[in-house]
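User: Hello! I'm new to structural biology and keep hearing that structure can be predicted from sequence alone. Could you demonstrate with Carbohydrate ABC transporter permease? Please show me the input and the output so I can see what each looks like.

Assistant: Of course. The first part below is the input, the amino acid sequence of Carbohydrate ABC transporter permease. The second part is the output, the predicted structure written as tokens.
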Amino acid sequence: MTLTTPTPHAAGDVPRTTRLDRGTGGVPAPRRHAWRDRFADPVFTVLTTAVLLIAVVAIVYPLYFIVIASVSEPSAILNGDVWLWPQGFTTEGYARIFSDPTILRGFGNSVLYTALATAVSVVTILCGAYALSRRDLYGRTFFMLLFVITMFIDGGLIARYLVVRDLGMLNTIWSVVLPGAVGVWNLIIARSFFENNVPGELREAAQLDGANDFRFFAQIVLPLSKPLIVLMIMIHLVANWNAFFDALIFLNDESKYPLQLVLRNVLIQSEATAAGGAGALDSYAAAQRLGELIKYGMIVVSTVPLLLVLPFMQKHFAKGALLGAVKS
């Protein structure tokens, strides 16, 4: 509300008014900066847009470069001629990759390992985190301490190998799936989510309606935890798809190798072939050229499945990324 008050004036002068804002105790309102109102928001918008565009280019262009490099002549890549478009278009690298039957078998193995390992990890983390979030769980602090200790103390690779061997899991699918099934950090995030978003009153109301703990968890807790579930699936999908070290250590049968390990072996063989052909200049150059094509093609082959799947799960990622945050 704007009030006007007369101000002293000389005889014959027209009375003037001073603008007073309600709630300021009669003090005149401070003069606003017109230039700040006019230019602050546009400048902020332009700077933010510029930074985001630079970030997008920095992320997208390397992926795009790998794609065009996989169908370009390696000599053009080494000469710096490949920037925006392929030079000397060729699909020889992809033909070499997919002509090897071990590639398709490795792809199938990776799909199986990733799906099974992700399912096992998500189920165990959700069940364990919910149990640890229950304040009526006897000894939950002790159990949580045992999990946290494993984040700081590790028996090492030899101890891990001995455990897998003594459990009879060597050269089996379980040696890839089970050793890293439960990530403690993800367990802590899930537990914090359940503590902050599943109140005890809700469980008490369900118990009054005759629901036991299993029914409450399956029909009430899980539907309320969709962002958490999607986040856990995304994390474990990426980790399990890119994993190859456990397979390298625990698997001896090449027919059970995942895609990442198969592609690694193909690349090593290509480099070995190039090195072995150093005696003949032409054969060495051809082997080196094929090795470069295979290298870029392998990156595309191993990355495309994730690029096709993850965008469909992005809907819940923004919510899931903030799960486990402390609430005031």
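User: So the tokens describe the shape?

Assistant: Right, they're a compact way of writing down the 3D structure. Reading them back into a model, for example: The chain has 15 helices and two strands.
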